[in-house]
Amino acid sequence: MNFDNMRFTKNHEWVAFENGSDVVTVGITDFAAGELGDIVFVELPEIGTTVESMQAIGTIEAVKTVADLYSPVSGVVKEVNGSLEENPDVVNKSPFKDGWFLKIDLEDRAQLDDLMAKSDYDTLVGR
Amino acid sequence: MSTSRRTPLSEIHEKLGAKMVDFAGFWMPVAYGSIIEEHTAVRERVGMFDVSHMGEFIVTGDGATTFVNDMITNDCSKLGPGGVQYTAMCRENGTVVDDLLVFVLDDREVMLIVNASNIDKDFEHVAARKKPGIELRNVSDDFGLLAVQGPASRDMLKKCSMFQPVLKELDETPYYKGFRFDAGGSEVFVTRTGYTGELGFEIFVPASMAVRAWNEIMETGADSGISPIGLGARDTLRFEASFCLYGHELDDETSPLEAGLDWIVKLKKERFTGDKALREEKANGPRRVLRGFEFEGRNILRQGYEILGDGEVIGKVTSGTFAPTLQKSLCMALIDSAADDAASYSANIRNRSVPVAKSTLPFYKSRAK
Hints:
Chain A is built from four helices and nine strands. Chain A is of the alpha+beta class. Chain A is globular.
């Protein structure tokens, strides 16, 4: 896992970016997936939706609990992970890769600077 | 560190890497990995639960059975030694103090198996009704309790060395009967009961023997694909089988008739605590009824969410989950009986309303018999 190209929020979302592209991938961390337990449903915004940073944009239903998904960035939803509809447990099994949630076209690339690096996130969750 | 009380097996759960929580004051495993995989293990193979947090009282004396019978809604007078019965224990106003199992050990001795969250309340309730010549002991800490549940449970237990003296009993003991035997100097009780809707046994061992029994059953069960099961799957399994859980379908304000437990309220009995209120409620019809609902989406209808009938709030969800075996979003709810024939139902899920439809209880037909 290349965590150098990832940023994290205190709400336990991750953002993966590639140099030269304004489209970022968003998911939840291994810590969040582990705390939620068996995820049975992920409700995501529709493609084309404009989302604001820190806005609740979806729902994660796990057997024991339900959590809001907060957008870590502002922008427009370009793509959602359709495979989660049939297999939401992928989020538990592969939170950083196959269990990604959505891709967002950034409104402003500088907002990534407000998010945490992996080492700071690890400190936050006590690792 | 947690201040919760530990069961004789808490250390084993920690070593297995279980996610641990405080449940009713006990340090208990929620899941060792995936709740859904544990749920499936019990439906398809066999699983073992540590339910040592449950409370056990022993009532001793001539007339022990009569004393218990006067306190419960069911009729345990004809059970006889080895008989087990599910029942409720009510207040005079008909509300449920607890739901429990009565296990008749012999003519002078009856065991009550109660919910962990209610041990103190129940003991007080029973002690207050104690009669001369009746001895009441809270032996909750003396026992470890293992539930072995699933279609392979019986064949697997028969391979364990500790059960070699009772192979016949394991084979022939019917549902809701129990037996006791000497396992190398320790007295062990076994009942054919459970909380999953599958064939299964509950095994009461002295606390000092719990680790040895757990390890032996886990080792012997490996060939049968045994899995340790946490409270998470215990809840989804009992939910699918539509068994009541105290604190959800039952509580200090609910009557057994509201919760659909008419079959354990024996009004033919002359007198028992709460009988007057329950007779009146039976005659007039209960104010609320427990019903099952299904939702076509995949959101979970959780405890406390509102249920609406023809647009009006008519009750609340008591338990709900995305049922792992039935693959449906289901819930049980206590609703006003006046709204039992509404034309349409909906539920409020976190600030939005979704249509739901009635679904017959039990959701999953028990295979325990």
